[in-house]
Amino acid sequence: MTTEAEAADSLIRIMPESLANKIAAGEVVQRPASVVKELVENALDAGARTITVILKEAGKTLVQVIDDGCGMSPTDARLCFQRHATSKIRSLEDLERIRTLGFRGEALASIAAVARVELKTKRTQDTAGYRVQIEGGQLVAAEPCATANGTSVAVRNLFYNVPARRNFLKTPATEFKHIVETFQVLALSHPEVGFTLIHDDVEIYHLAPENDPSPTERLRRRIGALFGPEYALQSIPVEEMTSYLSVRGFLGRPELHRKSRGEQFFFVNRRYVRHRYLEHAVSGSYEHLIPEGTHPFFVLFLELDPRHVDVNVHPTKAEVKFDDERGIYGVLRAIVRRALGMANLIPQLEPATTVGMPPGREDSATQPSSRSNRPGSVPLRIPPGELSRRLYAVEAETESPAVQQTVLPSSVRPETDEETPEHHTLLWQVHDRYILTQIRSGLLLIDQNAAHERILYERALRNLESGFGLSQQLLFPQTLEFAPADFKLIEELLPELRALGFDLELFSGRTVVVRGVPDDIRPGDERTMLEDLLAQYKANLPLRLPSRENLARSVARRNAIRPGTRLTEEQMQALIDQLFLCETPYVSPTGRPTMIRLTLEELDRRFGRTPANRS
Ligand code: ADP
Ligand code: MG
Fold first, then answer.
1. Does residue 597 have a pLDDT over 60?
2. Please, which residues have CB less than 5 A from ligand 2, an ion?
3. Pick from 55, 138, 216, 385: most CB atoms within 10 A?
4. β partners of residue 265
5. What is the pTM for the complete model shown?
6. SS3 428
7. CA of 480 to the centre of ligand 2 (A)
8. Domains by residue range for the chain, with CATH
9. Measured in angstroms, how far is the CA atom of residue 58 from the centroid of ligand 1?
10. SS3 of 478, please?
């Protein structure tokens, strides 16, 4: 095409096809896990019901994928290794599918350019199978052979002809980890397909096809088979449809938190993606539910109009961009918080379920919004703290004299009588530590100390925020002497202490006169309150908490009813009422659970009851 004169004047050379293929292969095939992904996706596209993945040395020597899908004709078996050979795009309309699923007819060509590949395939209608062998992109053999219906692709010695890339591979342990992640992603998104993973002759996974009619149940079972039965038991199903976004999947209960971030799976329009910001929306909803520095488990499938997402179909990247990221963040967060709050973690007290909720209110959330398709206006069910408030129809706290003189300083009364929950559920104090009560879905056990800590903690935070902690004046003001360091601390904390309800006067570098103390402390404790609080505050210093957080925790610690305190029924009821008014009722300020829920299903299961012998 170019004359010699032109060539002499040009730096540009046209690459030989084989080199071009090798370079292009770098895009698609980065490591053995990419081969697993491409081959398994092809098997799924071929309609396989069962797929077996066989590895040797973490895929460096062998990645083989065997399926029972539709198979190929001998012609297609030869053709499929050519670049841009695909049976999946026939018309321009199919271009949308390229955009969303990334069919480019490149995978097999790329893999074959950098490995020794043997393909065996047979369609049901053919009497014999066909075998094609390709090494470094060169056809080595193509002939009839005996093989089962379906396709087997064996990829040996990956990168044998690209030493730089071969040397670039990580340790077998790392490569294997990537393969397992890839395998988990594929298995999670196709529960109805059976998957087996064999590594160096050891069966790592054998996942039966899930045939339950309910997709949620199929996914739950697959989660259990992949990660262990506790994951299936301790995950909360999510299913939310709005006109803008639909979300389904499972959220791990807080107990399932892990040190590493590994077990978080996001799919957007059926593609697995990593998206830091959205992951944060989910993880952030677990704040205070799981210890800091740990990560929740989740598998979430998001669907939204492809016009609002830009899936970068670069084969190895799983990146998405949304046109309204903050909107999705907000909706997702609300959905997750609600699922955590409503479905399981905020138990629905029996009497409460019958009051305070206008009929139909809950249902409206699951129906697509007809008002608008902007994410901000999606009708959401009520967030956790708000829920209990509405259930109990409480706007303002009023004092309940019955409880006031006793352990719990104030109780909560609904404003109107029609909406008063009837507290006819039995309450039982177990060993003066736990409160047992029946809820709609089973049993609830509340830790009285942890629960009260939560209540006092939130109240203290509110007071610190507003500066309006109620004070109880002492009949005889107390004069206390402090060590200079402690005096300094009191001086520093004075505005906060006043906000909590302390009425203090400071004198002369050592002396503090206490005229009033917060009104919600145990009677008889007024004298030591300030000293005890200070001691607790100092004990918390190594935690390096913000001073308000420390103070609120200290107040809660100091004043909460202790285990071993006998409670009257009214006190128990007041405690439960107030607990469910909290923003985060289910954990103590330091992260201990305040309650444990035992569902009827769990009880039935433990007693070996099946639906047949349940009644
Ligand atoms: P793409 O999947 O983008 O079409 P590939 O290079 O992965 O490109 O595959 C090329 C073609 O080979 C596919 O379109 C399909 O027709 C055929 N093919 C590949 N793997 C299989 C398989 N396991 N079973 C049946 N056909 C397959
Ligand atoms: Mg493919």
1. yes
2. 42, 107
3. 55
4. 299
5. 0.59
6. strand
7. 79
8. 17-205 (3.30.565.10), 215-341 (3.30.230.10), 425-615 (3.30.1540.20)
9. 24
10. strand
Backbone angles phi, psi at 515, to 5 degrees: -100, -25
- State percent of the chain over pLDDT 90: 39
Rounded distance between C-alpha atoms, residue 318 and residue 268, angstroms: 10
Task: Judge contact between 604 and 449, C-beta under 8 A.
Answer: no
> What percentage of the chain exceeds 70 in pLDDT?
78
Spell out the residues 6+ positions from residue 574 whose beta carbon is closer than 8 angstroms to its own.
400, 403, 408, 411, 412
57/580 Cα distance (integer angstroms): 54
Ligand 1 and 72: CB distance under 6 A? yes
- Cα of 275 vs centre of ligand 2, distance in Å, is 24
Q: Which of 41, 82, 108 to mutate to test the pocket of ligand 1 (most atoms within 8 A of CB)?
A: 108
Distance 107 CA to ligand 2 centre (A): 5
Q: What is the pLDDT of residues 104-146, one digit of tens each?
A: 678 899 999 999 999 999 999 999 999 999 999 999 999 999 9
Measured distance CA(585)–CA(348) in Å, rounded: 12
Best of 21, 37, 45, 83 to mutate for ligand 1, by most ligand atoms within 8 A of CB?
45
Ligand 1 and 103: CB distance under 6 A: yes
- Furthest C-alpha separation in the chain: 109
Contact between residue 477 and residue 484 where contact means Cβ atoms under 8 Å apart:
no
**C-alpha span between 392 and 585 (Å, rounded):** 14
| Sign of the four-CA dihedral 100, 217, 439, 603 | negative
CA angle 419, 449, 542 (to 5 degrees): 125
Q: Quote the distance between the C-alpha of residue 415 and its chain's center.
A: 38
Q: Does 87 sit in the ligand 1 pocket, CB within 6 Å?
A: yes
Ligand in closest contact with the CA of 87: 1
**For atom 8 of ligand 1, which residue has the closest CA?**
105
DSSP string, 539-587: HHGGG---HHHHHHHHHHHHHSPPTT----HHHHHHHHHHHTTSSSTTB
- How many C-beta atoms surround the C-beta of residue 139 within 10 A? 12
Rounded Cα gap, residues 316 and 41, in angstroms: 13
Residue whose Cα lies nearest atom 12 of ligand 1: it is: 80
Q: DSSP labels for 350-414?
A: TGGGGSS--TTTTGGGGSPPSS---GGG---PPPHHHHHHHHTT-SS----HHHHTSSS------
Neighbours of 236 (CB within 10 A): 17
The SS3 of residue 19 is helix
Task: Determine contact, residues 273/265, Cβ cutoff 8 Å.
Answer: no
- Closest alpha carbon to 159 in 25, 268, 253: 25
**Does any ligand 1 atom lie closer than 6 A to the CB of residue 82?**
no
The model's pLDDT over 335-362, given as tens digits with 9 standing for 90+, comes to 888 788 754 454 433 332 222 333 333 3
Burial 348-358 (b: 16+ CB within 10 A, else e): bbbbbeebbee
